[in-house]
Design brief:
Strand content of chain B: 25-35%
Shape of chain B: globular
Radius of gyration of chain B: 24 Å
Oligomer: heterodimer
Radius of gyration of chain A: 28 Å
Number of strands of chain B: 27
Structural class of chain A: mainly alpha
Number of strands of chain A: 0
Distance between the termini of chain B: 41 Å
Helix content of chain B: 25-40%
Structural class of chain B: alpha+beta
Helix content of chain A: over 70%
Largest sheet of chain A: none
Number of helices of chain A: 9
Number of helices of chain B: 11
Order of helices and strands of chain A: HHHHHHHHH
Strand content of chain A: under 5%
Distance between the termini of chain A: 98 Å
């Protein structure tokens, strides 16, 4: 064990909480998945705790352990495309300092985001979804009254669903247009 | 440092083996016992003189000294008394399985009550003795293997067993990972490999990527309720049903007959795998009510055997599917398939594996010895600080097989660490108090893939005290969950505001306390290992 490596470990362990995951793996933010894996292997060769298992200095082993746990954490997040995207957003944003570690909140947010997207598309209650699906069929066939009825029913179950409201507004616009046309026809 | 030695021990459900790297830079060797046997039945027989017989000799006593002979203890290690596996064992095992504190499992032999790790410790003690005789020196350090799919309770219990046997357990490593290490060590290859490990009582699959000296486990999956014993069971059931139809006697009613039946089943399985046909003959297996002695006579052919066990073999491929999916690979991406465990010698298993992967499994690897060889390599590496310098380094990047969860309200759980996450790893979660003046926070930690607590394995209840007391929601406690290189979970907590570490106590754990282990160690050291004659 040379003393230079010891100094390296000590300074890296001390700086760990100021580094983002790209810094931990010593790669640029643009790294490709194979580069991430190569970096992970490189850091594993350097800081794998097994290398130092027989090293008598326990405090030093603990430092290596801390670094290596963070290496694993970094790899776990960066190898996952969804988590990586969220993480990059976090560390390039204004709250960078608080978000250097991918937290449970971040994870929940990724999940929440996916769930919300799905729900927005389809509705949050079984009945809401049912009526919204019916409305889409009516819309497809350009039966505006039917679509309006279905959307109003869907909104009874989910009064605050933005997508439903948007769709209803559009349908009502169409209806308005048609009514105007109709009126004009009658006047003529 | 260099005068120290550490051995690798494959602690199997049915058979165990011990190996070592005897000199720096040398290759690992399986250490035989004084009769040249290289694998040893994981069987412990308590003799009348107070000594204990372990290994292939003890196996004979399953029939002659059934109540005092314990085998397949690994099936029970780290389990709760109420688990299905324990209930099943109670029905078929001739020895007595009783309930201990905190729903733990105890084994009763004569008037002695032993915890399962104490029995495994006796197997380890025998392995240690074999190694010491073979190497001609004292052995105090070891790497012990366990199935990749073992949970924290089972790993902890395995580690405890090592300590009780007087061994310093340097590491618990996964059996498939050890096999991969033995396969790829020093070969300078870059491959994706699959380890198909069908043991006596467990089945594991691991997918690894080997990049020269780095062994990265991409995913692992398994079934801790599936193994060669289940193949034996099928033959037993067939024999017993047939006997019942012929003579109107149910051999399963008598534990003595059941053991003979089991032995016949195991032998038939091995013969049918080797020769394609098995002649089964157990003379005088039982007596009719009229006092007539009846022999058990049957003939088992390959096709018939294959039909009996086909569904078991199919189950292993469901597990393979799962592992490949987690690794985001298909069967075609795998460069090599390594077979581990005795049952993989069966033609039906080999052929099915070949068919599934569209590739010939690796030959030239002894499925009974490869795990202990890998463990020996790892043991040697952990003792050596300079391994990296002379090109002997290998880095095992293993994963946790199960998701780590905490219990929430209403019997649900929330995931903290995903399965197949590289270890060692740590993750923190902040908890707040829910009552004014609350002075303790309890959290229950689980492992499993269900969000329902009752479908997961409880690891224990952690109670934190000694933090600041305040109004509800005001005190925040940061709980850190760490999974170490052994796959064992550690939980600690700090008060977020003061940074003060809180004290932790563990309740509801089925494991042994420090006191229990100390007592067991003394106990274990007192027990003498009997040296019987050579097994027939």
């Amino acid at each position: 064990m040379d003393s230079q490596f010891q100094i390296e470990v000590e300074s890296l362990a001390a700086a760990l909480d100021q580094l983002d995951y790209f810094g931990v793996l010593k790669i640029p933010q643009t790294a490709t998945p194979p580069e991430i894996k190569a970096a992970y292997y490189r850091e594993s060769r350097a800081y794998h705790p097994d290398r130092f298992a027989a090293y008598p200095d326990e405090a030093f082993r603990e430092l290596v352990g801390r670094i290596y746990r963070r290496v694993n954490e970094a790899y776990t997040v960066l190898r996952d495309d969804k988590k990586r995207a969220k993480y990059v957003q976090d560390v390039t944003g204004p709250e960078r300092a608080q978000k250097l570690r991918f937290t449970e909140a971040g994870e929940a947010q990724v999940k929440e985001e996916q769930k919300r997207k799905l729900e927005e598309q389809l509705g949050m209650t079984p009945n809401g979804r049912k009526f919204y699906a019916a409305a889409l069929i009516e819309l497809e066939a350009e039966r505006w009254e039917g679509a309006q009825r279905a959307l109003k029913s869907a909104l009874m179950y989910e009064p605050s669903n933005g997508r439903f409201k948007e769709a209803l507004a559009q349908v009502e616009k169409e209806l308005e247009k048609n009514r105007n046309k109709g009126d004009q026809f009658r006047i003529k | 440092m260099s005068d120290d030695i550490a051995v690798g021990i494959d602690l199997g459900t049915s058979y165990s083996a011990v190996a070592a790297v005897a000199e720096a830079g040398g290759s690992p060797q399986v250490l035989p016992n004084e009769w040249g046997e290289r694998t040893h039945a994981s069987c412990v027989s308590f003799l009348d003189d107070g000594s204990v017989l372990v290994g292939n000799n003890a196996k004979k006593n399953i029939i002659t000294n059934a109540e005092n002979t314990i085998y397949s203890a690994k099936r029970l290690i780290g389990r709760f008394y109420f688990s299905d596996e324990v209930k099943k064992a109670q029905a078929v095992m001739p020895y007595r399985i009783v309930e201990g504190p905190n729903n733990s499992v105890r084994l009763q032999v004569k008037e002695k009550v032993l915890a399962v790790p104490e029995v495994s410790a006796l197997v380890l003690k025998e392995m240690k003795a074999i190694a010491e005789t073979a190497l001609g020196r004292e052995v105090r350090k070891a790497v012990v293997t366990c199935p990749a799919y073992f949970n924290d309770n089972q790993r902890q219990a395995t580690k405890d067993a090592g300590r009780i046997a007087g061994l310093d357990v340097l590491r618990i490593i996964n059996e498939p990972t050890a096999a991969a290490l033995a396969y790829g060590f020093g070969k300078d290859i870059s491959q994706k490999i699959c380890v198909y490990d069908l043991g006596g009582g467990t089945f594991d699959v691991s997918i690894l990527e080997i990049g020269k000296d780095v062994f990265e486990v991409l995913s692992t999956a398994g079934d801790t309720y599936l193994g060669g014993d289940d193949f034996d069971d099928r033959i037993m059931t067939w024999l017993a049903d047939d006997f019942l139809a012929k003579y109107g006697l149910d051999l399963r009613q008598n534990k003595f007959c059941l053991q003979m039946l089991k032995e016949a089943g195991e032998r038939a399985k091995i013969e049918v795998g080797r020769d394609g046909v098995a002649e089964i003959l157990v003379p005088g297996i039982c007596q009719s009510p009229e006092g007539e002695v009846i022999d058990l006579r049957q003939k088992l052919v390959q096709d018939q055997f294959n039909r009996m066990v086909m569904d078991l073999v199919q189950r292993t491929f469901k597990v393979c599917d799962e592992a490949l999916q987690s690794a985001r690979l298909t069967a075609g991406d795998v460069d090599a398939v390594i077979l581990v465990g005795g049952p993989t010698r069966l033609p039906i298993v080999r052929n099915s594996v070949r068919h599934y992967f569209q590739r010939e499994p690796m030959t030239g690897i002894d499925p009974d010895e490869v795990v202990s060889l890998g463990a020996a390599i790892q043991a040697h590496a952990l003792l050596n600080t300079q391994a990296a310098e002379y090109g002997q380094a290998s880095y095992l990047l293993d994963v946790t097989p199960l998701s780590l969860r905490v219990g929430t309200v209403g019997g649900f759980t929330e995931k903290i660490i995903d399965k197949n996450t590289p270890i060692p790893i740590e993750k923190s979660k902040t908890f707040t108090t829910s009552r004014d003046g609350q002075d303790r926070v309890k959290i229950r930690v689980y492992q499993g893939e269900s969000n329902r607590a009752d479908a997961c394995e409880l690891l224990g209840e952690f109670e934190f005290t000694g933090f600041r007391i305040g109004y509800r929601g005001e005190v925040q406690i940061q709980v850190t969950f760490e999974i170490d290189s052994n796959g064992i979970v550690n939980v600690s907590a700090t008060d977020v505001e003061t940074g003060q570490k809180t004290s932790t106590t563990i309740n509801l754990s089925s494991g042994l306390s420090e006191d229990d282990i100390q007592t067991a160690m003394i106990h274990n050291a007192d027990i003498e290992l009997a040296r019987g004659g050579r097994a027939a």
